[in-house]
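Support reply, case 0932

Customer input (verbatim):
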Amino acid sequence: PPGTDSVTPCVDAAARRVDLELASPPEVRAELETVIGQSYMTLGRYDDAERHMRNVLALRQQLTPRSPLVVAALNDLGGAFLGPGENDRADSIFKSGLALEDRIASGPDTRLASLLDNRGSVEHARGQPAEAERLHRPGLTIRRGLLGQHKAKVDTAMHKVAGSLGEQHRWAEE
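Our regenerated output:
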């Protein structure tokens, strides 16, 4: 992506440093690996992102196996596969995240909305706009309920629902 020439060496250096400093407390290492993995996803370096997100997931599962942090790690790891179009792998990981979220959450939250949105994006990539809409709509409803109407994440969710409706030629629906 444009503008990444100056960022990429910084992320690479941070990744090397984290790899060398294995003695970091696991909680700190997981946080650092998350930031590095998400940065690699933004840069479109999905193989590097996957490696770091797998490390995060392993650390999170070791520390707190049934926690929101594991759900978030699964969501991030799925994103590392969604970006390059590995839809089946991404979908399987997002489904694992949803199953864990269902067991630990006390009610709808932004993790659930994000997982539903990501599963909707998988279905969109598979050319299944009706299924994508079915998954995006609850994500939008959750975000509206938690965040109100005027948040960027609500706008993004609305855009995804609109895209699914447009592909179904359902222009007049909201």
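We compared this against your earlier run and they match. Two observations from our side: The radius of gyration is 17 Å. The longest helix spans residues 129-147. Please reopen the case if you see a mismatch on your end.
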